[in-house]
Amino acid sequence: MKTRHIKIFNASEYSLPEYQTIGSVGVDLKANIAESILLQPRQVYQIPTGLFLEIPVGIEAQVRARSGLALKHGLSLVNGIGTIDSDFRGEIKVIMIVLIDKTYELKPGERIAQMVFSEVIKADFSEVTSVEALETSDRGSGGFGHSGKE
């Protein structure tokens, strides 16, 4: 596994993000809140982490839901996966929602999401004049459900 240097400023009272196991690809993000918040079903919340990053160009950070919170409590990220661009210098915040009909008590310092760093490739587009100019493939234009699995 490669490592890259990421500068971080921690304005929270909690420890820096860390990998929980040797095989972990994501670090946990914690709720930087002063007191518990009751998250109501189907309401959108912006939860601060108190973390600020300087990410090298060519790297992105992805904020992802924690699977245990999703399964046990219906907590998810409104945007699915949040992308943090290398030139963003603001506080990392997690956009959360409760997808089930039950409130969730979010506590200060609770691990609310995970952050994964990944190398990115920028596209160099070459415009063509028609869809027929695109090379054919076995899949073709088969879209949603094209494999027969619903």
Give the number of domains: 1
Strand arrangement across the biggest beta sheet: 1-4-8-6
Compute the CA-based radius of gyration.
19 Å
Q: Could you estimate the helical fraction of the residues in percent?
A: under 10%
Quick one: how many beta strands?
10
Given the C-alpha coordinates, what overall shape results? globular
CATH class: Mainly Beta
How would you spell out the order of helices and strands? EEEEEHEEEEE
Mean pLDDT across the residues is 93
| Beta content | 35-45%
Question: Could you name the ranges where pLDDT drops below 50 across 5 or more consecutive residues?
Answer: none
Fourth CATH level, the homologous superfamily: Deoxyuridine triphosphatase (dUTPase)
N-to-C terminal Cα separation, in Å? Answer: 36 Å
Summarize this, please?
Helix content is 5%, strand content 37%.
Describe this structure in words.
With 150 residues, the protein is mostly beta strands. The protein has one domain: Deoxyuridine triphosphatase (dUTPase) (Deoxyuridine 5'-Triphosphate Nucleotidohydrolase, Chain A), CATH 2.70.40.10. Helix content is 5%, strand content 37%. It contains 1 helix and 10 strands, in the order E-E-E-E-E-H-E-E-E-E-E. The protein has a 4-stranded antiparallel β-sheet with strand order 1-4-8-6. A 4-stranded antiparallel β-sheet has the order 2-10-5-7. The longest helix has 7 residues, at 67-73. The protein is globular, with a radius of gyration of 19 Å.
